[in-house]
Amino acid sequence: MNERNIIVGLDVGTTKVCTIVGVQNPNSELEIIGIGTHPSHGLKKGSVVNIDKTVRSIYASIEEAKLMAGVDIQSVTIGIAGSHIYSFNSSGVVAIKGSEITAGDVERVLEAAKAVVIPSDREVLHVIPQEFRVDNTGGIKDPVGMCGVRLEAHVHIVTGSIPLIQNLVKCVEQAGVKANSVTLQPIASSESVLSLEEKEMGIILVDIGGGTTDIAIWKEGSLIHSQIVPVGGNHFTNDLAVALKIPHAESERVKINHGCVLAEGLNQSAHITVQGLSGTNSREVKLSFVAEVLGARAEELFHIIKNIIADKNLGNEITGGIVLTGGGALIKGIAELGEYIVERPTKVGHPTPFGGMTNIMQNPKFSTVLGLLIETSKRTQVLDNDINENNNNQMDLIGKFSDSLKSVFKEIF
Ligand SMILES: Nc1ncnc2c1ncn2[C@@H]1O[C@H](COP(=O)(O)OP(=O)(O)OP(=O)(O)O)[C@@H](O)[C@H]1O
Ligand SMILES: [Mg+2]
């Protein structure tokens, strides 16, 4: 198998590390050939807090994927989240030198849009073009070749803490592979879960992970807002452990097997038996009480999302509603509760199937890693096309992502 066609996504999550190996067949179709998942130890709220434990989890996940795929893994695309991520919109303007807009002009205007003051311990992870304006015409996605005298770019900029990005990259490299790029996790999840039509209409992707909830808001095919909220599935589990006075592992079992966020529809007399803390007897608890505890946390999360929409003044932009994904979206009743609180159509989004994807992988908890794989595959194709056509002027937007990342790596190492 040609090494160049091997593509690998690595999602280092708070609860699990997942590696997926794909291969690009001669028709440029992506096919999954290996997967490895391992419980994650060493992360808190999406950020590395213990290097050794994180390296071991990554190593185990990569080894499992390698064994299944029967190929060697040299480089991976990793996802990043964590509460250190901060994103904002910016814009820049340049004068056009020639009669036609060239790729060089686009590069200059993106540089101008990026020229904002950020703290010295932060780095720009992505500069994602939203739209270009040529003179008085807006809504342009690719201005190359157009005539005009003034080019304006509106972009979404994602920044992260340099030490925290470095820690993650260091763990990946200590596990024996090269991190060739870093992608914001909700961008990756959007790639595997949302359709182009949804991104066009205006939609909120909400990836409820273990440690964080990652948000990406799309309109007219562009990312207009992204944010990491430090509340995830682990908080639901912790709340239940405290309220029921049961061990954490028992609380996770109860949440997954019997959890629901809507107490109203439940049979009020239904009970389950739970294991008490060590040394105490097992007890009966009402299912409606379990749902009240989980429901309170889910309500808090949806109120945060509602406030983000209001604060950013995005109410009129999101005509497509909300898509929930990530392992935390599997809890019963969550879409109904979200729809009720945020007052927008809400559904649970599963990764869209493609070659080699089994039923097991069509689980919302694999949205990020599958998105990383798809994104890398698209980027590789763009690079291949560039090489084939020997034409660097044809810069794709995805290529732009990777370029901004290359500069991050250059500056970090
Ligand atoms: N069937 C289920 N019902 C309810 N919750 C579930 C279910 N399956 C998984 N979860 C929850 O999903 C969460 C893990 O989701 P996921 O695997 O997407 O997180 P992660 O990627 O490891 O974390 P993060 O993205 O925050 O770094 C855990 O809190 C887990 O309890
Ligand atoms: Mg995740």
Structure report:
A hairpin with a 2-residue loop joins strand 8 (122-134) and strand 9 (137-140). Residues 391-413 have low confidence and may be disordered. Among the domains are: 86-160, Dna Ligase, domain 1; 196-350, Nucleotidyltransferase, domain 5. The chain is globular. A five-stranded mixed β-sheet has the order 3-2-1-6-11, with helices on both faces. It has a five-stranded mixed β-sheet with strand order 14-13-12-17-18, sandwiched between helices. It has 413 residues and is an alpha+beta fold. 38% of the residues lie in helices and 29% in strands. The protein binds adenosine-5'-triphosphate and magnesium ion. Adenosine-5'-triphosphate binds at residues 13-16, 40, 46, 81, 209-212, 232-234, 237, 252, 255-256, 259, 326-328, 330-331, 365. Residues 13-16, 40, 46, 81, 209-212, 232-234, 237, 252, 255-256, 259, 326-328, 330-331, 365 line the site of adenosine-5'-triphosphate (ATP).
